[in-house]
Amino acid sequence: MKLDLGILQGYVVDGSGNPWYRADIGVVGDKIAKIGRIDSDDCARTISARDLYVCPGFIDIHTHSDLTAIMYRGCDSTLRQGVTTHLIGNCGQGIAPLKEPNIELAKTYWGEWAGKISEMNWTTFEEYLQELGKGGLGHNIAPLQGHGAVRTAVMGSGKERPSDAELTSMKDLVAESMEAGAFGLSTGLVYPPGCFADTDEIVELCKVVARYDGMYASHIRGERETILDGIREAILIGERAGVRVQISHNCPKWGACGRTDETLAEVKEARDRGLDVTIDNDVHTDLGPELSGALPQYLAELPTEEVIEMLRSEEDRRRIRKEIVEDKLPAFGPSGLLKHGRFDRIFILHSPTQKDIVGKNISQIAEERGADQFDTYFDLLIEEKDGILAIFDYISGDDVKALMKDPNMMFSSDCSTWSLDCAANEPPPYIPCAFGEYPGIFERYVRDEPVLTVQDAVRRMTSFPAQKIGLWDRGLIRPGLKADITLIDLPRIKDRATNLWPHTYPFENYPHGYPEGIPYVIVNGVVSVDDGERTGVLAGEVLRHMRS
């Protein structure tokens, strides 16, 4: 048999969780054609994999590359990590369908991202997928339908329960997306507009998903004090609708740190009852949003100028502070630092005009000013017109490790694909997950301070997410499956993103860099990273779920 590519003499970690074995792998077209002993003369090209681990390409089950994959089609930052597939549309966020008169509101939820696309030439989910696939992609993209996009298209900024007619329209849109190839539905129940939806609404939409054998992925309703209620709601939705459930980035945030035994017990109990419930998590303990990101959800719909004007009012400021502390509509994770007054864990990463505060935390700045910490937070937002990026250090590393050991957990990045070559990097965003998530796991938790074996780490990045999503032709090294393959040089692997362990500020390695120790990445049979460098080939595809 004449082979297009031979990967020779590697340690094959096949994605099943089994220990490595020594073998050659032969590729014809976009598929694995042979595993065993291969003569190099039978190959149009060979790669020496001596001393390298040969794995299935990594499948990232939780990403936000909906727009950035169009902006940076090479998917440089994630492809170089060994990732060959992104599942997009998570946290209820989606950029389709778009319907008047609510299109501008939908773009508001995406913030600056939407502004990077000069023309959005789509309104339906199918049209979006067609646009996404034009011209190729650096790696594969598999889509979820975001609940927030559907709700916005039908209800605009409405916070009430949908009428019967509105719910029917939403169900019709979900059905259209599933027909177009969506792998399921996602929710973001701490973000607008998902936070305004009740359980019954989501159940009805998930019943549509169930008809297509799709999945339900949820950023649950509360990641801190109410985390157990949020997990139980996600499980209940899956049970009532008859869909498999993926609980996204399921690490307790500040206000629930140390409660992983309780959260994991809820998942185990559900599985013991025969429910298909699993979780994913990344390994970063911080996040770098604007200061306004931790304010109550309804403010996200307002122009920045209006939010600033409200914070100038002593009455509104007192009310917003009270809302943050009471947290009646649970906000997303970093807000817990404000709720509990942990301003010492909020560090200034970028400030447009006040360069002297970069690297300091809010508590230090408040002390220097002789001011209240909450007021300092609000004042900085006003002074810099919400132009400050801050690091919220809001997750426990011990909780991350505890999750990592649980058999029902798979890895994700929670990132958007990116590129160092883009023109939109000023200020550079704090997204270490987009540049170093997977190399960092191997560097820290497999090699340097072992928490997982190589084969278990690979399983959680490949066959496990493939099984959950329904990508039955990927995620394993097997003859007949798609040739998405990643080679790892474990002694040399290094995460070169902004990522400090333990946390020390200010940052010395900012902005980000591409990783080392992932010399080859093959996407659909095409060598896309060759000896550590991008080839420029766009071999990725838009993957579509088909009802079985």
Give an account of the 3D structure.
Strand 12, helix 10 and strand 13 form a beta-alpha-beta unit. Helix 8 crosses helix 9 and helix 9 runs parallel beside helix 10. With 548 residues, the chain is α/β, with parallel strands linked by helices. The chain is globular. The mean pLDDT is 93. The chain has three domains: 161 residues, Urease, subunit C, domain 1; 253 residues, Metal-dependent hydrolases (TIM Barrel, Alpha-Beta Barrel); 103 residues, no CATH class. The protein has 19 helices and 21 strands. The protein is 33% helix and 17% strand. The strands form four sheets. Strands 1, 2, 3, 4, 5, 18, 19, 20 and 21 form a nine-stranded mixed beta sheet that branches. Strands 9-10-11-12-13-17 form a six-stranded parallel beta sheet, sandwiched between helices.
Helix and strand arrangement:
Blueprint: E1 5-12, E2 21-28, E3 31-36, E4 46-48, E5 53-56, E6 58-60, H1 68-71, H2 76-79, E7 83-88, H3 103-110, H4 112-115, H5 125-133, E8 140-143, E9 145-146, H6 147-155, H7 164-180, E10 184-188, H8 199-211, E11 215-219, H9 227-241, E12 244-247, H10 260-272, E13 277-281, E14 286-287, H11 304-312, H12 314-326, H13 335-339, E15 346-350, H14 362-369, H15 373-383, E16 389-393, H16 397-404, E17 409-411, H17 432-448, H18 454-461, H19 463-469, E18 485-488, E19 520-523, E20 526-530, E21 533-534
Parallel strand pairs: 1-4, 1-5, 6-7, 7-8, 9-10, 10-11, 11-12, 12-13, 13-17
Antiparallel strand pairs: 1-2, 2-3, 5-18, 14-16, 15-16, 18-19, 19-20, 20-21
Helix pairs in contact: 6-7, 7-8, 8-9, 9-10, 11-15, 14-15
